[in-house]
Design goal:
Elements lengths: L18 H7 L47 H10 L16 H6 L8
C-alpha cells in the first residue's frame, strides 16, 4: 500500500463524538486508548489526504466512516501496523472536543 498524503490535524468539528462519552460515563471502562501510560502505539484516524476520517465508533458503518471501513485513515494504519510497516502509519494528533462533547461538558485529550 502506498503512503497517502501527510497527516492532518483533527478539527474540533470532526472525529468520534461518542468516544469521550463512553470513557466518562461508562461504569467499567474509563481507559483512553491514546493515554501514554497505556503504552500503545497511536496513529491517525481523522483523515489524511484522500483517506476518510473515523466519525463513528463502529467497525463498519453505513456511512463508511467506521474504524475498519474502506478508504479510512484508520484502516490503512491498522494495515501498516499489522504487516510490520508501522513506520508508514500517519501520526495521531490530539484534538479538542467535538461540538457534541463540548455540549455535554466532557473533557477530552489533554483535558482528561
Amino acid at each position: 500500500m502506498p503512503v497517502r498524503g501527510a497527516p492532518s490535524t483533527r478539527c474540533s468539528e470532526s472525529g468520534d463524538g461518542w468516544a469521550a462519552t463512553g470513557r466518562e460515563r461508562s461504569a467499567d471502562h474509563h481507559q483512553d486508548p491514546t493515554a501514554q501510560d497505556l503504552g500503545a502505539a497511536t496513529f491517525g484516524a481523522d483523515s489524511s489526504g484522500d483517506l476518510k476520517g473515523v466519525t463513528d465508533l463502529g467497525v463498519h458503518t453505513s456511512g463508511g466512516t467506521g474504524y475498519l471501513d474502506r478508504n479510512t485513515e484508520s484502516l490503512w494504519n491498522v494495515g501498516y501496523a499489522t504487516t510490520r510497516h508501522g513506520d508508514k502509519m500517519t501520526a495521531y494528533h490530539p484534538a479538542g472536543p467535538t461540538p457534541f462533547e463540548a455540549g455535554l461538558g466532557i473533557a477530552v485529550g489533554a483535558d482528561l
